[in-house]
Amino acid sequence: MNLKTRGLLSLTIMVSAFMASATEKIPEQKSFNKEKDLLLVQLDCKTDVDDIHTAAALYTLMQHPEFSKVKYHVVAGTYGIQEGLYVPPNNLLNLAWEDQWTDAHADFDAAVQKVKTMVATTLANEGDVWMADAGQSDFSAEVVKAIVAEHPELNLKERIHVVQHSTWNEEVTSPERLQYVKEQAHYQKIPDGNAVDNGTPGFRTPGYTRWKEQITDPELLKIWQLAVEIGLQYNAKEGRYNNEAVAARGLDFSD
Description:
6-stranded parallel β-sheet, globular, alpha/beta, 43% helix, two-stranded antiparallel sheet
């Protein structure tokens, strides 16, 4: 089984687990509607390089026919109050999605307004919005706040689903924003993908380099080569977090 197949299989398991966990407490047991719903994948990119590998994994996943109809959008720079330097994902995201992603690091307020418009359109078309916080929830809170200001009549507890996997991410989200998003939206904490034996496959593998031989799709190979290159370029540099799996030339797409 090549890496593309293995990766898609693992990521399919991850998304299935994500959807199952995320819907546990949703009224009427909602699940993701590929025809109407919007998935927002929000990457903090500060200061861990795992978001870079996560972006590559997301791109890989979305090439699978099962997810070809999923409406999704990537937002970078959705960090909270943690200290440390940013890991620029621009080259990778441009390669994967050209201009079809949003840069909250460059202009947070403009990014909120852009994503708010996408969210409002989805809600108006009777879809739900699923925010996968691969970082902190500050950006999610501000988008929700913007929707509340324009559409106070909507019950966002049933329409916007914020999914968080990391306790650390919660700890470095602005407390008032974390409280706000928990109060206004449907907020679901799921098991941490950095660990194993907790219901997740554990998407963190030190020393894994066989992807170089196992990826057969030229476009996917370019994406992963650049993701690994960026990860090694910025990991533990200038005080950034030292991701030991990446330092061992492995992969980490746990976010």
